[in-house]
Amino acid sequence: MSFKLKGEKLERIESATENIINALIDTLSDKVPRQNSFKLFEEKNSSSNSVSAQMNKVFGRQKTIHQILGGGKSADVLLWRNKRISSSVLAGATAVWALFEWLNYHFLTLICLTLASGMLLQFVWSNAARTFNSSSDVPRIKLPDKLFMELAVSAADQLNQFLGFIQDISCGRSLKDFVMVVFGLWAASVIGSWCNFLTVLYIGFVSAHVVPVLYERYEDQVDYSFANLVGVLQKQYSKLDDSLKKKVSKRKSFKSKKSE
């Protein structure tokens, strides 16, 4: 009885999540107008305008968001090319998270209950087929070996790319990139101390389904704000650098006078 009630709760959660996501995407796309362009400087030459717009892209990127995300079906899901599929994937992830976090299920419990339910279904099916002299075979589930090999190769490839990226940053000479990566890892560690690993994965999964599509729709506004933020940071950095240089030069001059 309790399992049935929990199943009904999961269906309600999944349905409510799908409705909320669809309503959110529709509302944002209808009420917020997408502007064609934001430029930091007005220029007469069209070629210089395109160069300026390219320089104002976040992190100086040259590819589209769809290409950065891989350009395949996964990118279509993350960018909500098909709202039904994307909302179903997000609702399924929400249902799994709610199953473990809200309903206090454990992974081993879920696996055992799923296997027991499958065995019960096959048992009833096979006995019903024998009773009614039916020739239909009981369906059997067999996972393909190729699927696990592809998943393992893909996971290893992504992990190697990530390790190569952080090692390139560590061995490189860009202090800015090094500080940004270290700060990102530190922020991830802080977030991980606030909640468990499953919740962190769920937050990342939801962010991957929300942030790219919002950025794609309001790309010009985000690039404009990002360019302004970078300009402010560069001014503050130049001021700090000038003040440090002045202090260093004063100390050198003071030491030279003292030595004399």
UniProtKB/TrEMBL annotation:
Transmembrane regions listed in the UniProt entry: 106-125, 178-205
What protein name applies here? Reticulon-like protein
Name a single GO cellular component: endoplasmic reticulum membrane
Principal place where this protein is found? endoplasmic reticulum
Answer yes or no on keyword Transmembrane. Answer: yes
Taxonomic superkingdom? Eukaryota
- Which cell locations does it reside in? Endoplasmic reticulum membrane
Does the keyword Transcription belong to this entry?
no
| Topology term for the membrane | Multi-pass membrane protein
The GO biological-process annotations, alphabetized, read as: response to bacterium
- Listed InterPro entries: Reticulon, Reticulon-like
